[in-house]
Amino acid sequence: MRLRTSLVAAGIATALVLTGCAGGSGDDDSSTETTGTAALTIAKPDGAITTESNNPYLGDSSASKYAYGKAIFEPLALVNPTGDLGTTPWLAESVTWNDDYTQLTAVARSGVKWSDGEDFTADDIAFSFTQVLDGKINDTNAFDLKGVTVDGDTVTIDFNSSKYTQQARVLHYPIVPEHIWADIADPNTDPLTGEGQAVGTGPYVLDSWTTESVTLTANPDYWGGDLAVPELHYVSYGDNAALTTALATGEADWAQAFIPQIQDSYLSADPDNKFLASPTAGAGTLFMNLQTKPFNDPALRQALAWTIDRQAYVDIAREGASEAVWSVTGLGTLLQDEVLPEYADQNYSVDVDMAREVLTDAGYTWEDEKLVDPDGEAVTFSISVPAGWSDWNTEQALIAEELKEGLGIDVKVDQPDWGGWDAARQEGTFQAIIHWLEDTGNAYGLYTSAMDPKWIVDDKAQFNFGRFDDPAVTEALNTYANASSEADREAALAVMQKAFVENVPVIPLGAHPLLGEFNTRNYVGWPSEEDPYASADPTQPAVVQILTELQPAE
Question: Domain 278-513 is classified in which CATH homologous superfamily?
Fold first, then answer.
């Protein structure tokens, strides 16, 4: 992850500097005004909002599930998962890590008030993290805190282990007011629905909650300056089809969803309808079970890597909402600066002749156009993706066709329900699956997901589903995550990357994007391919940044 400041105005008068203090509109006493008149309706396809819970720390709360909590409760800083992968200080005027990322120093932004009028201070930051340190809030983010101290406006947070690969988790942690939360007996369960409890520093405040819609109104004293949008309506539809209709007709304005045939079903309905797919450091990836045939042979895996068409994955399965990953290192374009020089120009392509040469050299043959392994057995396997995951279901069919035509491999397309698929991936009873990666904003995400034994606990895997295990690679992964110098981290990267290239433990297909559908009828200033200051996904922490960037359309 690049720890450089994103020079995005974000509605703040002065550009924010990562390791230095910078003034913003929160440094004066001017009140926030709204300059637009139209509300924004933000939608999800997750069914009815049945139970109110405004607690930002609960993953199943309505505030988290429908994401309106992110417009109320703000974090210390925003880490861009796309674009320059940079960090923009937010509730902190500056955030600084020590050399080994075991200590974070944050300077509380001055001039910020909670939505109930109380002053925001460094003590609120310290309190938010101390709740985890003291065990009052479950450490679901694996912060592994050591201590929290306050000196004036400066908060120092110490960790027992390096947070280099978890920077976003730390910096995106919601900050809450001590004067309210100190009286909450159990913040792990409290729905935060009491009068005056849903108090944040964010650009919007909770106005009303019903099972049909949650309404937020602009915070009149927001530290980040004027807000163009006076009101946000959060609505949930029964499925993607209903959501698509709402977007196309203008009933909904902003959403995050994969929409099949998006050009015909959404974009063509109105020239103001827009769609942005923002690539991230993660990727849709083919995981193979390395413990059983045929994937226990690196030659077979390499041959597949020379045969599978990543551009078809992007163009057909993802309908353009991705970016092909061709580098032999498995890293996409956002992480090009972590590709070692010796691999800088080494890319896979669709080269069936190369794939067949690799297989021939490894002792494979063909009988009646079917691939036969060195043991004399026909090569066949199944590839599994849950039914209804339409993009990856399409990719299953594409891979089956490509491997049958190119290499003579019979691939069975398996589409179980979620439960069966989940059990198989954890227990290692699958042959091949398509899955996402742990996205850490750097090369570690791919390599830990593909090769790290730490993910296998009690013989069940959360990543590294193929169960790759090489002590030298494991040591390198640990070094990369915990290094106190760039030299040590680069040396560890060399070990991991070489092992990945030589062993092909997984095959990344295309960058896993963050999606956003929105319209420019009433407001402009949205993220774009030309200005990727954030993704356009309204469920991400940077929703606060986008809301301060929006301006009325001419």
Answer: Dipeptide-binding Protein; Domain 3 (3.10.105.10)
The b/e string for 513-537 (b: 16+ C-beta within 10 A; e otherwise) is bbbbbbbbebbebbbeeeebbbbbb
Q: What is the spatial distance between Cα 210 and Cα 190, in angstroms, rounded to a whole number?
A: 18
pLDDT one-digit tens code per residue, 70-94: 999 999 999 999 999 999 999 999 9
In the chain, where the domains are located: 36-71+202-272+520-553, 73-194, 278-513
Q: Does domain 73-194 have CATH number 3.90.76.10?
A: yes
**Bond into 187 cis (ω within 30):** no
Identify the pLDDT of residue 36: 78
Domain 36-71+202-272+520-553 has CATH 3.40.190.10: yes
**24 Cβ neighbours under 8 A, 6+ residues apart:** 12, 13, 14, 16, 93, 109, 111, 223, 224, 225
The pTM for the full model equals 0.90
* Rounded Cα distance, 495 and 473, in Å: 6
Structure token pair of residue 543 = 């929703």
Tokens of 320: 């353009």
SS3 of residue 345 by DSSP: coil
